[in-house]
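Fig. S4 source data, part A: sequence.
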Amino acid sequence: MTFRNAALYALMAGGLAVLGLPSGPTPIALMVGLMLLIILVARFPARQGAWLGFFFGLGYFSLGFSWMLTSLHQYGDIPWVGSIPILLIFSAFMALYPALFGAVLACLAPRPRLLPLAAPALWVVTEWLRSHVLGGFAWNLVGYGWDRWTPFLQVADLGGVFLLSWLMVWPAAVGASLWLRRATGREIGLQCGAVALVLGVVFGYGEWRMTTLQTRQQQDTRPPIRVAIVQGNIPQQLKWATTQQKDTLDRYLQLSRSLPRPVDLVVWPETAMSFFFRANPDYVQQITQLSRELGTTILTGTPSVDRESADDPWRFYNSMVLLDETGSLEQRYDKYHLVPFGEFIPLRAFLPATFKKLTAGSEDFSSGPGPVPLAWGKGDIGPLICYEAIFPDEVRVLATTGVQWLVNITNDAWFGDTAKPQHLAMVRLRAVENRLPMIRSANTGLSAVFDDTGLELGRTHPDVAETLVVTLPHGSGQSFYQSYGAWWIGLWIGLLILARVRGRRMTRQLVQ
């Protein structure tokens, strides 16, 4: 096989793998795409392996992130002739991580027999790097391909989404090893039996964990809470129009008044209130009046502005505020992991003043103090605004503060349709990893509520204005991943070292 043909096949394998993501038709496609990549990389030296990984990543990310075109063109006012190159450049940058995989795999696994040891661990290390380097972008990790099979997701309470990624790549590496070695029928049977055994154990663990946790829920003496989600479905084109503010507020007030009572918590989406609360006391009064009518607390997204003193510049925040009948604005969380180019411009001081964000407003948002809980009488809330929910390690840190509920408010209106199920799958897994219920309110959907097993208790329809009321049990709030998740990267690196040692030993034996 020529390298040119291999590069084309790698690009196609990346595109095939996208079909296994939550928005695609079958998760098997993800495993097959990864197997093809490993087969191709194993046939070439490190330099060419890097290029093959790069082309795989280019296909995988260009299609997997295609929803960005909606953000760039429709809402960022960037013509198609500019939007497509921007997507390709970003995808090429993300493709550096599969390129690293392709380059290093040849060194760690000089023989096909080492692929099942080296390839899954190496892939997970590159995903971990992609989640952390330069702020990270943990979207579409391959572990989310298991989203359709809830029992498999349960091992996330041991090793998070990265363990699920390992479980996605390992069978692919076994298949690649067998193909490259032209294995005998007996070897194929034994290896496939081992894969089936491991996946069977994972499935059995998942069924057991779901049963035990659901039994604990039934025996829990703490009363469940009734949560109401209000999905306003405000078009992105109108969301930030000052003439729309009153109509937007009226829609949320009207939808909330239609809720069946009693409810303990009403959750509105990210920036549901697209105005500064302190500058609009009349609007705050209407919301606190609603809180009194419903006898409940209202959690809403809103922009905020502050400064430490009269001499300091104003700082703008993307916030989440708990409002009750007192109208106090003290219970406020400010988003700290901001979206580059959407909420702030990196290296702003070195760019021309005409360089604007993709979202409304000329000012950059500032970062909040970090993952901190919101105090609520029925249990502290773990706040997550939009993009923050895709970072497993950051949510894990928040979970260790003793929160009882995770709440993700978001506005996915400025993404394409494929992003909505992808984002929802990531949010769902955060509940499983930390064994905490997850409440998600999205402006245009998908809004949903999950218990601590990741079981969906209710969901709204996309692109409609509606409400959802769910009775939500408490979660255990404890998991191995939550306590020891930071140490897993050491295990993956240890497996890579082991693969390297075994590879050198096998090479020396062949030379002798």
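Fig. S4 source data, part B ends here. The chain has two domains: 3-217+488-511, 224-473.
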